[in-house]
Structure formats: C-alpha cells, structure tokens
Amino acid sequence: MLRLSGLCKRFEDLPVLSNLSLTLSRGEIVALIGPSGCGKTTLLNIISGLTAPDAGTVEGADGRLSYMFQSARLLPWRTVEENIRLVREDAPAEEVRSLITAVGLEGFERYYPGQLSGGMARRCALARAFHFGGEIFLMDEPFQGLDYGIRMEMLSMLLSIWQRERPGVLFVTHEIDEALTVATRIAVLAPRPTAICQWFDLPGPEGRDASAPELARLRQEIIRRITGYNQSGCHGNGGPQEKVIY
Ligand SMILES: Nc1ncnc2c1ncn2[C@@H]1O[C@H](COP(=O)(O)OP(=O)(O)OP(=O)(O)O)[C@@H](O)[C@H]1O
Q1: pLDDT in tens, 46-102
Q2: Which GO terms describe its molecular function (predicted)?
C-alpha cells in the first residue's frame, strides 16, 4: 500500500502542497481532480522520488513503480517495439507483442515516434508503463488533448491491461468523465497550496458509462465541489487542509 502522510512542498516563496495525505491500495484506481497548477505533478514527482518533499512521508513507493508522464516521452531513435521493450529488456517477446496488440498498435511495431500520431504515441507510452509493471502506476493526465473517442478507447485499454495485475493506479485528470469511467475513488484537490478536500467513492465495477443516470448526482456533487472551493471552506492559502468524506 502507498501511504502519503502530511506532505508539504514549496518552491521558494510558493507553497504548493500543504499537509497532503492519502493512501492507495493495490487494485484501486484513484483519480485526482484539481485546478491547474495546484500541485498534482509535483505530488507524483514526490511519490516517484524525482522531487523531495519539505515535510511528510511517502511509504510503500520503494518497489517497482511506473510513471506515465503528461507527454509520451518516447525515445525518437527507437521504434515502438524498442521503446516498450527498453524498460524491461529481459521480458519474453510475446509479452511485448501482447501489449502492442492490447493498445491497438499491431502493424506499427517498427514505426519511429516521429511517424506516429499523438494518440498512437500515448498508446505506446501506456504499453511501456504496463510493460514496466509494478504495484503502483502514476499517470499524469495521460490522455490530455486526445479526442473523446480515442480517450474512451484508451480508458478501456487501460482497464483491460489493469485487470491483468490490478496494480494501484493514481490517475491525474481534468476530465470528470474519465474519472467516473475508471476510478474506484475520486479525490478533489484544493487550489494551491493543495490538499485533498473531498473523497468520492464510485459505485459498481470500473468501466462505467459516465453518462449513466445513476452517476448524475455524483457528477453534480463533484462539479459543485470543484467550482465551490471558496464558498465551502476548502481552499488553499492556509485554509482547512483536508475533509475526507467516505
Ligand atoms: N521545479 C519547480 N520550480 C519552481 N516552481 C515549480 C517547479 N515545479 C512546479 N512548480 C510550481 O508549482 C506549482 C504546481 O505545479 P504542478 O506542475 O505540480 O501543477 P499541476 O497541478 O500538475 O498543474 P497542471 O494541472 O496545469 O498540469 C506551479 O505553480 C508551478 O509553477
């Protein structure tokens, strides 16, 4: 289990994280929704060890951890297959092939990143992250900027690959529909300096239809929370840090 306790971070005069705590168990997909610039990437960087926190602790991130960045970050001089294989070169070839099929890149194995569309590059990055494997997956707006159809397709790819090993996934998104489709829990973050201001539990199995009527009330509550930070008392600038409601 990943356990974050009391994380604080500032960049010079800018406080970014303020006493942020959360847990993530294997088999959970936790979506993080929060305003732009509130500190979501900083949080993932702290979990992955790329950035050091000023205070607080990260427990349970010392095993194998996959991090899918906002951009695909493929090596331009390596093919699709080589980019995926790179993170675990000793894996059997069938494993790489099965992931390439799972993300719909069959036939493009020998293409270089410069020959791929943005969506194909993201799919390659998704396959690479799952090829690396591990108990924890960090995903930073992995489908940002892709059209609705491709995003939904990628979400179902994510779910079908996730169902193989059921790692714990921390998934940053600005799209409520993405969160409603795949998350087991949703955390709404406050503006900077951020902390979690509310948790939402999701009903039923992952792979939901985000437009289903039974999710309408939940969607409204999430929107109310996102748009009502300042009225509700859950805001940055030293306000209440965490209101966890299960
Ligand atoms: N290395 C750094 N040095 C100085 N300031 C930084 C650094 N990294 C991030 N910041 C600042 O920290 C704040 C949070 O940035 P971060 O990228 O974590 O936000 P975010 O929530 O992921 O944003 P977005 O949703 O727009 O991607 C921003 O104001 C940013 O300018």
Answers
A1: 999 999 999 999 999 888 899 999 889 999 999 999 999 999 888 888 989 988 988
A2: ATP binding; ATP hydrolysis activity
E strands present in the chain: 2-11, 14-24, 29-33, 55-59, 65-68, 136-140, 168-172, 185-189, 196-201
Ligand 1 neighbour 9 (Cβ under 6 A): no
Phi, then psi, of 179 in degrees rounded to 5? -65, -45
pTM of the entire structure?
Answer: 0.89
Ligand 1 contact via 11 beta carbon (within 6 Å): yes
Of 9, 10, 14, best ligand 1 pocket probe by most atoms within 8 Å of the beta carbon? 14
Q: Pick the atom of ligand 1 nearest to 42's CA.
A: 18
| Alpha carbons 191 and 163: distance in angstroms, whole number | 33
